[in-house]
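Hey all, sorry for the wall of text incoming. These are the two entities for the joint prediction.
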Amino acid sequence: MTNTLKPTVAEALEVMKSKELGQIKVFIVEDDQMISDLVTAKLSLSGCIPYSTANGAEAIAMAELYTPDIIILDLMLPGMTGEEILTVLKSMEDLKTIPVVIFSNKSEESIKEKVMKLGAAKYYVKAATDLNMFVAELKDLVQK
Amino acid sequence: MSELSTSELLTIENEKLKEIIKSLDKSAQMLLLRDVELREANNKLTTLDKQKSEFIAIAAHQLRTPLTSIKFAHQMLSDSISEKLSEDNLKVLESARLSIDRMFTMIEDLLVIDAIDYGDLQLAHESFSIETCVEDILSSFTEIIHNKQLQIRKNFMENPPTVSCDSHKMRDVLSNIIDNAIKYTPSKGEISISTMYTQDNLIVTIDDTGIGVEQRDEHLLFKKFSRMDNAKLLDANGSGLGLYIARKIIEKHLGSITFLNRLPQGSSFIISLPL
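and here's what came out:
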């Protein structure tokens, strides 16, 4: 793990505070900045604690660092693909129980089937997703 | 003139046969050449077709990304400022939402058409309630139904069973037919939707008192890019793909879709799906 990924004191306090408030920590792995910003803003407004990265290669280390309650994962990412990240996450003892929802604009059934078999909790085609419903369903998945 | 001997006749016949064989050989060579040319052309077309599909898949993905941002930004703005907006400005926001949805549908249609043409239409198999889906679709048309004062009649049994099908694609099919019924039924008209379960099939019937289809145009109804003249007068922007896609999706589910003309007024669409 690189030093740049170590949480700051403020971040660590924020995580502790979120646990006390029962807030959901959501980790977003998304390389499109605008989509990432909008989802992050929506999650914040909905009382969640969002973290994000645009780099696939950083995703595993950041997931280990923040141990989120749920992960939103894009498929086409620089560094490491969503499928590769999902495979690694599901092989890690500490992280394999964290629900991972795939958030991609690929809509082919073969891709959906493949990632669901790899252990994804749900598949969303971004452009077909209602943001309010998405956040509500994320909360449901965490509570399951 | 002296008669030719048998031997001479045979020689002449032999020569003729040799000519014929030579000509056939030449034809066979030409056919072989044509065969090679056709195979090469076919290979080129297959490659081009594959490249076209790849291009459509990439273009669809690339178009969806900014569309997602627009959709999310619109949704967040609507959620936060709707209450403060005037009725006129709310209509502007609603127009933007409808355009976003239309753009998304067009991209979806592009992908589905390509999958159909390429013989690669894939289906998910999920538990699906037709009745719940119809209710959901109708609720998305509440405003236009109200504005046109349309009577909606539903004939559903209590606690209907679910069916196994691709829920998104089936929703697209039903949405398309209901959308057409609403669009092409004049004010104060009637739309009836009913479901019936036989031992082996689910039958969905959608009747309307709309403009109907001229008998001469009926054969075009489920054809790609076909639009009826009377439909163009009411909606100039349709792509002519909706019913073509609907039929292909239903057929992929091993079902059928039938159109019944009820001229002078109205249409019926009957969908049959195996249980």
